[in-house]
Design a protein that fits this description.
By secondary structure, the chain is α+β, with helices and mostly antiparallel strands. It is built from eleven helices and 13 strands. It is found in: Cytoplasm.
Length: about 375
Amino acid sequence: MTDLYATAGVDTAAGDTAVELMKRSVAATHGPQVLGGVGGFAGLWDASALTAFRRPVLATSTDGVGTKIAIAQALDKHDTVGQDLVGMVVDDIVVVGAAPLFMTDYIACGRVVPERIAELVGGIARACAEARTALVGGETAEHPDLIAPDDYDLAGAAVGAVEADRLLGPDRVADGDVVLALASSGLHSNGFSLVRRIVRDARLSLTAASGWSSRSLGEELLEPTRLYTAPLLDLLDGADGGAVHAVGHVTGGIAANLARVLPVGAVVDLDRATWSPQPVFRSLAEAGGFALEDAEGTWNLGVGMLAVVAADGADRVGAALTAAGVDAWRAGTVRFGAASGDGFVAGAKGVDGGAVRLVGAYAS
């Protein structure tokens, strides 16, 4: 019998093969709460665990990887962008103090190449396991004539839970709180439209040596997003967890992503001299002909999270994060009053928040 769908450019057999290739990596993220395994119409998660909560609050987030995917496609290297997807989603959940419970993914492509889909989902599954999040389902959609044969896009969503009285946010922030900066692994998954423009205009080769490591420029650009969920959850569940008042996930603008988790009236000067952006940022800025400061609204410049912490617990919190593999340092202090001077960002993403600016010069 003729497969009519195949004549339209959709290979359902390739889709089934992709599922078979990814099943083991997905199953590795499943604990006893996941019911039904892989392949059902809906992912199932046993919510009876929430009965242990006094007042459970659900947190949800959805995001994608963005144009970083174009770098992966150019290098035909697809095993890292899955971690970028997970980081963009679950680390938006942990900033409110919630533990991500489960995640689903969506891959849209022009043509299903089973091995490539398995690479993508394998990266997602490994990152979910690191973030202690079950990957309970997903969808791979083949869109011939709409998406080029070797193009694809990634998106995902996750759900987490937190006790209502342990929610982090602006209402907890106090005068004198310390702002800790948590190191990024590099560009993460933001600002790649600018990255790609620089690569194009400066005629940089993705396969040439980066100049600051043994890896190529393309491999440096594909360094996956650091996952903060597990270290932060361990911290929040520990003796010093109560010292953490608010957390901002730096997905792009540094000042804006802190301002949106501060209350109105809170003011912070972030001191650039407390850190040195990684070589990837300096190299791209030089190739693009602009100063690092000009990219503060686009790239994380070495800071992936900003945590607002009680002053008397800041050193212990910073030491705990560093011991967990996430370098952390004091970058500023919260004060309440008027934001006098230039360069402040006040709130962001429709949130009326605090006022933040970056001051000084970056360490060399």
